[in-house]
């Protein structure tokens, strides 16, 4: 049963990792697949007898030897035409798990039921009933609490904390919304266009405004809509320089709310040429 | 059917594992990202291997200009990379989760190893005390040496099983091979401990010679397991051998003994454990004692007296000492329990008093340990704001852009953005390049020719740059105009 369970979990994991990778289920099954199953089946194949190892050592070796098997499988894949990718890694580990499980199953079959290792879950609540077993019941409850606590700790570990840092993202893209084709040469009287974006990480609803200056002279003012925490704004913005000249410094100032002091600035330089 | 004793042991074991998870998280309780520069470096290498699908891959920290081949910590990247692929999680989630799982695993393996000799829970408890500093690293970081610590109890369990059995022999050998590919220094330390155990077993055990044959074979095979790293990266091994022959002063300052961080109660228990190991005698006790003492003297006296390389064994040595000391402290506590119970058993409240006293010792040891952890200082390479900037660069800029960046940000930049950096350096490697780049940025990055020479597309600097050929597209992020590169 144990070998079958390990193989089934591994078989379930492969499509999960491919199609629903990143989900909590694939995280748990993936960790079992990578950190437990290869070692468990290897230990089962090498030590098929009940008295070979106690359960703690069997589990410990399962985790430990998985750490041994996984890099070596990856190492082997490096010398194959498939390389180290999602499918080769999943399939090769699956093949290893199934093969080791098959060897373990074959070796166990040649033993008597008393001789072979098979995990037995002979747990029954019957032994915890009655006043004479009050302490045992309390301890059992405590064990459940501690196990939940351990899992809870792990969940807390996995969830990145809020670092308490507040800020606003401010960025500039080209006119097509990609980081390319930024205005370089502008004809006097014509407009240059960029795409500006703001994302609110201030933790509170915030109003933003953007002022564009060329060589220190204001040429454009943009007011973004009110942004809720986590909300973003992105829009094309055009500006027209006021005079001819090379390497004119365009500054894009981001203001927050009614504040008079800008808290972010972006810069680029443009050559402004006469239209004649 | 669970009996009361096994219930209590299960409760304590799960509580210890939960403690291990918490201990590994402690340095980043209020910080979402990896802390140490090495963590970022390993993440960058892992991502690049998964990107290219091969172990010969462009070095992402050197602008992808030359290939990394035969990286000595490849095994770690493969292990972490496989976990990423199998879970489908982001590196950010696993980078937080894995150190906790690894320390939990170390504690569990310590339990499984010590259990047979009656100090499993105690060994597991003190194994969670292994300290983490920015200097010698540790289990709270996502680093190969932390994973390597798992191999101490793992191979010791296999070694004990081998006393009458050939079957663990190939498992020990492949474990060492995997460890040599994961963290060679730890493999040397684990091999050293195994050799001592085997020598004591072969010399002092009364088992018949026929039973000792697997151990004798293992003793002969251990040195050969290191051949794999020689075949994988001959230049690296030769360089390390050269370091041993031509020992030089370590470029970094001496490591202070981390006893206050561990807590003096644990240290006292380790001393008591030492005493009991000597008093009780027997090859198993000597085999635990001797390598610990030798490693302890090595890390304490190495720098001041010997100056024998390679220095990495000195840099990481305290971790091995702390793990072995944790085992011995656990042994000491278990012996105190046994002696206490034997001494007070006739007294009505004797047993209870002994357990209460031991519980107090454990609680105070933990309080001291947490106090030591709280005093340790960890740096943070990036802020949340910087993280978002780097992530934005990865999303918006063409793939594999090369960025000239302040070297202290370089390691994190590669991992978050998926772009190449030039350069990323950690002292004492690449100091010249780091200085050159820092000077370039401090002068305002006005030398466009230098950017062209580096074949770079992006410059990152937290300070304003005054180069008209650059467009500041986001605070700190400058891209070279098309046609300028």
How would you summarize what this structure contains?
The complex is a heterodimer of chains A (276) and B (485). Chain A is an alpha+beta fold. Helices cover 41% and strands 23% of the residues of chain A.
Task: Please tell me about this protein's structure.
Chain A is 41% helix and 23% strand. Chain A has six helices and eight strands; from the N terminus they run ααααααββββββββ. Chain A has helices at residues 2-19, 24-35, 37-46, 55-78, 86-109, 134-158, and strands at residues 167-173, 185-187, 192-201, 208-214, 217-223, 232-239, 245-256, 264-273. In chain A, β4 (208-214) and β5 form a beta hairpin. The model of chain A has no long low-confidence stretch (mean pLDDT 90). With 485 residues, chain B is mainly alpha-helical. Chain B has two domains: 4-32 and 70-375, no CATH class; 384-480. Helix content of chain B is 66%, strand content 5%. A five-stranded mixed sheet of chain B has the order 4-3-5-7-6, with helices on both faces. In chain B, a hairpin with an 8-residue loop joins β1 and β2. Chains A and B meet through α1, α2, α4, α5 and α6 of A and α1, α2, α3, α4 and α7 of B.
What is the number of strand segments of chain B? 7
Using the CA coordinates, give the radius of gyration of chain B: 25 Å
**Adjacency order of strands in the biggest sheet of chain B:** 4-3-5-7-6
- β-sheet strand percentage of chain A: 15-25%
Taking the alpha carbons of the first and last residues of chain B, their distance comes to 73 Å
Trace the largest sheet of chain A across and list its strands.
2-8-7-4-5
Supply the helix-strand structural class of chain A: alpha+beta
Report the uncertain regions of chain A: none
Which short descriptors sum up this protein?
A: 276 residues; alpha+beta; Immunoglobulin-like; 3 domains; 6 helices; B: 485 residues; mainly alpha; 2 domains; two-stranded antiparallel sheet; 21 helices; 7 strands; 66% helix; 5% strand
